[in-house]
Design brief:
246 residues; two-stranded antiparallel sheet; 10 helices; 3% strand
Length: 246
Protein backbone atom coordinates (compact mmCIF):
# COMPACT_ATOMS: atom_id res chain seq x y z
CA UNK A 1 0.00 0.00 0.00
CA UNK A 2 1.38 3.41 -0.97
CA UNK A 3 1.60 6.18 1.58
CA UNK A 4 0.18 9.25 -0.16
CA UNK A 5 0.04 11.40 2.96
CA UNK A 6 1.51 14.79 2.14
CA UNK A 7 2.41 13.68 -1.39
CA UNK A 8 1.57 17.04 -3.00
CA UNK A 9 3.70 18.97 -0.50
CA UNK A 10 6.38 16.34 -0.68
CA UNK A 11 6.68 16.76 -4.45
CA UNK A 12 7.90 20.36 -4.04
CA UNK A 13 11.72 20.57 -3.94
CA UNK A 14 13.32 21.78 -0.72
CA UNK A 15 14.41 25.31 -1.69
CA UNK A 16 11.14 26.18 -3.44
CA UNK A 17 9.20 24.79 -0.49
CA UNK A 18 11.19 26.82 2.04
CA UNK A 19 10.84 30.00 -0.02
CA UNK A 20 7.08 29.51 -0.07
CA UNK A 21 7.02 28.94 3.69
CA UNK A 22 9.17 31.99 4.48
CA UNK A 23 7.08 34.27 2.27
CA UNK A 24 3.85 33.14 3.93
CA UNK A 25 5.29 33.49 7.44
CA UNK A 26 6.53 37.01 6.71
CA UNK A 27 3.17 37.95 5.18
CA UNK A 28 1.40 36.77 8.33
CA UNK A 29 3.87 38.80 10.40
CA UNK A 30 3.07 41.85 8.28
CA UNK A 31 -0.58 41.42 9.17
CA UNK A 32 -0.11 40.69 12.88
CA UNK A 33 2.83 42.77 14.11
CA UNK A 34 1.34 46.22 13.34
CA UNK A 35 -1.32 45.41 15.95
CA UNK A 36 1.39 45.53 18.60
CA UNK A 37 3.07 48.59 17.11
CA UNK A 38 5.71 46.91 14.98
CA UNK A 39 5.76 47.83 11.28
CA UNK A 40 8.32 45.52 9.78
CA UNK A 41 8.01 47.27 6.43
CA UNK A 42 10.00 50.17 7.89
CA UNK A 43 12.96 47.84 8.37
CA UNK A 44 12.64 45.21 5.63
CA UNK A 45 11.17 47.08 2.63
CA UNK A 46 13.56 48.36 -0.01
CA UNK A 47 14.05 52.09 0.53
CA UNK A 48 15.83 54.60 -1.67
CA UNK A 49 19.52 54.49 -0.78
CA UNK A 50 19.51 58.17 0.29
CA UNK A 51 16.63 57.59 2.71
CA UNK A 52 17.33 57.58 6.43
CA UNK A 53 15.50 54.23 6.58
CA UNK A 54 17.69 52.43 4.05
CA UNK A 55 20.03 49.61 5.03
CA UNK A 56 21.92 47.26 2.73
CA UNK A 57 20.11 44.12 3.91
CA UNK A 58 16.93 45.48 2.33
CA UNK A 59 18.13 44.47 -1.15
CA UNK A 60 17.32 40.91 0.01
CA UNK A 61 14.66 41.30 2.72
CA UNK A 62 12.26 43.31 0.54
CA UNK A 63 11.56 40.31 -1.68
CA UNK A 64 9.87 38.46 1.19
CA UNK A 65 7.28 41.20 1.83
CA UNK A 66 4.00 41.64 -0.04
CA UNK A 67 1.34 44.32 -0.24
CA UNK A 68 -1.81 42.20 -0.08
CA UNK A 69 -3.26 38.72 -0.60
CA UNK A 70 -3.41 38.97 -4.41
CA UNK A 71 0.20 40.18 -4.53
CA UNK A 72 1.58 37.23 -2.58
CA UNK A 73 -0.78 34.73 -4.23
CA UNK A 74 0.32 35.42 -7.80
CA UNK A 75 4.02 35.59 -6.86
CA UNK A 76 3.88 32.36 -4.87
CA UNK A 77 1.81 30.62 -7.52
CA UNK A 78 4.45 31.48 -10.13
CA UNK A 79 7.23 30.42 -7.76
CA UNK A 80 5.51 27.08 -7.18
CA UNK A 81 4.56 26.52 -10.82
CA UNK A 82 7.93 27.30 -12.41
CA UNK A 83 10.40 27.33 -9.52
CA UNK A 84 9.97 23.69 -8.58
CA UNK A 85 10.82 22.63 -12.14
CA UNK A 86 13.84 24.91 -12.34
CA UNK A 87 15.13 23.69 -8.99
CA UNK A 88 15.03 20.12 -10.28
CA UNK A 89 17.04 21.18 -13.34
CA UNK A 90 19.50 23.53 -11.63
CA UNK A 91 19.85 21.88 -8.25
CA UNK A 92 18.88 23.51 -4.99
CA UNK A 93 21.97 25.64 -4.31
CA UNK A 94 22.22 26.99 -7.83
CA UNK A 95 18.49 27.70 -7.97
CA UNK A 96 18.60 29.62 -4.67
CA UNK A 97 21.61 31.62 -5.87
CA UNK A 98 19.81 32.41 -9.12
CA UNK A 99 16.55 33.44 -7.42
CA UNK A 100 18.20 35.68 -4.83
CA UNK A 101 20.50 37.22 -7.46
CA UNK A 102 17.53 38.12 -9.65
CA UNK A 103 15.83 39.71 -6.65
CA UNK A 104 18.95 41.74 -5.87
CA UNK A 105 19.21 42.75 -9.53
CA UNK A 106 15.63 43.98 -9.39
CA UNK A 107 16.42 46.00 -6.26
CA UNK A 108 19.44 47.64 -7.91
CA UNK A 109 17.38 48.46 -11.01
CA UNK A 110 14.75 50.11 -8.82
CA UNK A 111 17.41 52.16 -7.04
CA UNK A 112 18.67 53.40 -10.41
CA UNK A 113 15.13 54.34 -11.47
CA UNK A 114 14.59 56.24 -8.24
CA UNK A 115 17.89 58.05 -8.67
CA UNK A 116 16.90 59.16 -12.17
CA UNK A 117 13.30 60.12 -11.42
CA UNK A 118 12.86 61.33 -7.84
CA UNK A 119 13.59 64.95 -8.69
CA UNK A 120 10.94 65.07 -11.41
CA UNK A 121 8.52 63.35 -9.03
CA UNK A 122 9.02 65.15 -5.73
CA UNK A 123 10.44 68.61 -6.46
CA UNK A 124 7.42 69.88 -8.47
CA UNK A 125 5.10 68.62 -5.72
CA UNK A 126 7.21 70.29 -3.01
CA UNK A 127 7.37 73.50 -5.02
CA UNK A 128 3.59 73.59 -5.35
CA UNK A 129 3.12 72.75 -1.68
CA UNK A 130 5.45 75.56 -0.61
CA UNK A 131 4.27 78.00 -3.32
CA UNK A 132 7.79 78.31 -4.75
CA UNK A 133 9.19 78.18 -8.28
CA UNK A 134 10.58 74.77 -9.21
CA UNK A 135 14.05 76.26 -9.73
CA UNK A 136 14.09 77.70 -6.21
CA UNK A 137 12.82 74.43 -4.72
CA UNK A 138 15.52 72.57 -6.62
CA UNK A 139 18.19 74.85 -5.15
CA UNK A 140 16.86 74.28 -1.63
CA UNK A 141 16.89 70.52 -2.03
CA UNK A 142 20.38 70.51 -3.56
CA UNK A 143 21.69 72.59 -0.65
CA UNK A 144 20.12 70.21 1.86
CA UNK A 145 21.77 67.26 0.12
CA UNK A 146 25.14 69.01 0.06
CA UNK A 147 24.86 69.63 3.82
CA UNK A 148 23.99 66.00 4.45
CA UNK A 149 20.55 66.81 5.81
CA UNK A 150 17.84 64.17 5.99
CA UNK A 151 15.07 64.59 3.42
CA UNK A 152 11.99 62.88 4.92
CA UNK A 153 10.06 62.73 1.64
CA UNK A 154 12.65 60.29 0.31
CA UNK A 155 11.44 57.80 2.93
CA UNK A 156 8.23 57.43 0.91
CA UNK A 157 10.00 55.58 -1.90
CA UNK A 158 9.71 51.89 -1.05
CA UNK A 159 9.39 48.62 -2.95
CA UNK A 160 8.33 45.18 -1.74
CA UNK A 161 7.60 41.82 -3.33
CA UNK A 162 9.15 38.71 -4.82
CA UNK A 163 8.40 39.77 -8.38
CA UNK A 164 12.03 40.47 -9.31
CA UNK A 165 13.02 36.90 -8.45
CA UNK A 166 9.84 35.54 -10.04
CA UNK A 167 10.49 37.35 -13.32
CA UNK A 168 13.98 35.87 -13.29
CA UNK A 169 12.39 32.45 -12.87
CA UNK A 170 10.05 33.09 -15.80
CA UNK A 171 13.00 34.07 -17.97
CA UNK A 172 14.93 30.93 -17.01
CA UNK A 173 11.93 28.73 -17.70
CA UNK A 174 11.47 30.32 -21.12
CA UNK A 175 15.14 29.79 -21.98
CA UNK A 176 15.37 26.25 -20.67
CA UNK A 177 12.05 25.08 -22.11
CA UNK A 178 11.39 27.55 -24.97
CA UNK A 179 8.89 25.45 -26.90
CA UNK A 180 6.93 24.04 -23.98
CA UNK A 181 3.25 25.02 -24.45
CA UNK A 182 1.69 26.88 -21.52
CA UNK A 183 -1.95 27.59 -20.81
CA UNK A 184 -2.57 31.05 -19.38
CA UNK A 185 -5.83 32.08 -17.80
CA UNK A 186 -6.45 35.02 -20.12
CA UNK A 187 -5.38 33.30 -23.38
CA UNK A 188 -7.66 30.51 -24.68
CA UNK A 189 -4.91 28.74 -26.66
CA UNK A 190 -1.52 27.36 -25.54
CA UNK A 191 1.45 29.66 -25.97
CA UNK A 192 5.10 28.62 -26.12
CA UNK A 193 7.14 29.53 -23.06
CA UNK A 194 9.58 31.68 -25.03
CA UNK A 195 6.76 33.88 -26.38
CA UNK A 196 5.28 34.23 -22.90
CA UNK A 197 8.60 35.51 -21.55
CA UNK A 198 9.13 37.89 -24.47
CA UNK A 199 5.57 39.14 -24.08
CA UNK A 200 6.00 39.79 -20.36
CA UNK A 201 9.26 41.63 -21.01
CA UNK A 202 7.76 43.86 -23.70
CA UNK A 203 4.71 44.64 -21.55
CA UNK A 204 6.86 45.56 -18.56
CA UNK A 205 9.05 47.81 -20.72
CA UNK A 206 6.05 49.58 -22.25
CA UNK A 207 4.36 50.00 -18.88
CA UNK A 208 7.57 51.35 -17.38
CA UNK A 209 8.16 53.86 -20.17
CA UNK A 210 4.56 55.09 -20.30
CA UNK A 211 4.03 55.13 -16.53
CA UNK A 212 1.10 52.71 -16.78
CA UNK A 213 0.25 51.16 -13.39
CA UNK A 214 2.86 53.40 -11.76
CA UNK A 215 2.40 51.66 -8.41
CA UNK A 216 4.17 48.62 -9.93
CA UNK A 217 7.98 48.51 -10.17
CA UNK A 218 8.14 47.59 -13.85
CA UNK A 219 11.84 48.35 -14.27
CA UNK A 220 12.62 46.25 -11.21
CA UNK A 221 10.95 43.31 -12.96
CA UNK A 222 13.12 43.96 -16.00
CA UNK A 223 16.17 44.21 -13.74
CA UNK A 224 15.42 40.74 -12.38
CA UNK A 225 15.14 39.38 -15.90
CA UNK A 226 18.36 41.09 -17.00
CA UNK A 227 20.42 39.66 -14.15
CA UNK A 228 18.84 36.27 -14.83
CA UNK A 229 19.86 36.50 -18.47
CA UNK A 230 23.45 37.37 -17.57
CA UNK A 231 23.69 34.45 -15.13
CA UNK A 232 22.17 31.93 -17.54
CA UNK A 233 24.40 32.99 -20.42
CA UNK A 234 27.44 32.73 -18.15
CA UNK A 235 26.42 29.26 -17.00
CA UNK A 236 25.79 28.22 -20.59
CA UNK A 237 29.23 29.45 -21.63
CA UNK A 238 30.79 27.48 -18.79
CA UNK A 239 28.88 24.37 -19.82
CA UNK A 240 27.07 24.07 -16.52
CA UNK A 241 23.89 22.99 -18.27
CA UNK A 242 23.78 20.09 -20.67
CA UNK A 243 21.18 18.94 -23.16
CA UNK A 244 19.04 20.98 -25.51
CA UNK A 245 17.47 23.39 -23.10
CA UNK A 246 18.55 26.53 -24.97
Amino acid sequence: MQNTRGSFWGMIPTVTKNLLIINVIVFVAQSVLPRVGIAIEDYLSLHYYASSKFNLAQVVTYMFLHADVSHIFFNMFSLWMFGRILEQVMGGKRFLFYYISCGIGAALAQEVVWELTWRSTFIPALAQLNNLPISEMTAIVDKAIALGENLPFLDNMITIGASGGVFGILLAFGMLFPNLPLYLMFIPVPIKAKWMVIGYGVIELLFGITGTMDSVAHFAHLGGMLIGLVILLFWKKKGLFGGGYY
